[in-house]
Amino acid sequence: MLQETKEKVLRANLDLVKYHLVIFTWGNVSMRDPDTGYIVIKPSGVPYDEMKADYMVVLDGEGKRVEGNMKPSSDAPTHLVLYNHFREAGGIVHTHSEWATSWAQSGRNLPAYGTTHADYFYGEVPCTRKLTREEIERAYEVETGNVIAETFRKLDYRSVPGVLVYGHAPFTWGKDADEAVHNSVVLEEVAKMAFRTEVLGNRIPLDQFLLDKHYLRKHGKDAYYGQ
Q1: Which of 121, 211, 191, 204 lies closest to 161 in space, CA to CA?
Q2: Domains located in the chain, CATH noted
Q3: How do 65-67 and 28-32 pair as beta strands?
Q4: Is the distance from CB of 57 to CB of 132 less than 8 angstroms?
Q5: Predicted local distance difference test score (pLDDT) of residue 173
Q6: Fewer CB within 10 A of the end CB, N or C, for the chain?
Q7: Predicted structure pTM score
């Protein structure tokens, strides 16, 4: 079942290693099949160099295992909440990449200091509020998804395809697993650049008109970047 999707999810997970976004068994990628609505996600705690496409786990929209002999990623409930709220998202990535995670641990939004950021994120990347003790004890992974969804009540998840979870780490998403990984790589790079920008003495975000120019030339009906 969904063999092609499993292969894509495997490759996307291995890309996290390739782009130095994870170590050990950290991180995970999932992808939603548009025809069935099923979610394909990596198994929990399996080293990347041992992973195979057949190890991927297929879940239905309620989180019930449809296919696979292994336990899904422990973050699967978070992915499911996000797919439910972000209806156009086809892929989701979670990493503990060091620069983006540093911003998450600081509890700060990631400002748009330059055009590299603006090419992908239409404004600052938000950091969620803290989870309460009750939320953590009730259903930690589900509530992680809920606090991300809460953060985007007044934000467009399509124009800001990433978030920092307070004290935890980043999540990104896209039209499929590959785009979600791409956005995760970019988020890590702009998080690094933003830190250095502040060390060099600047905390003034990009002018809105320059942010508009760079984001809108790549996105939207009047975009003209690329072939």
Answers
A1: 121
A2: 3-216 (3.40.225.10)
A3: unpaired
A4: no
A5: 98
A6: C
A7: 0.96
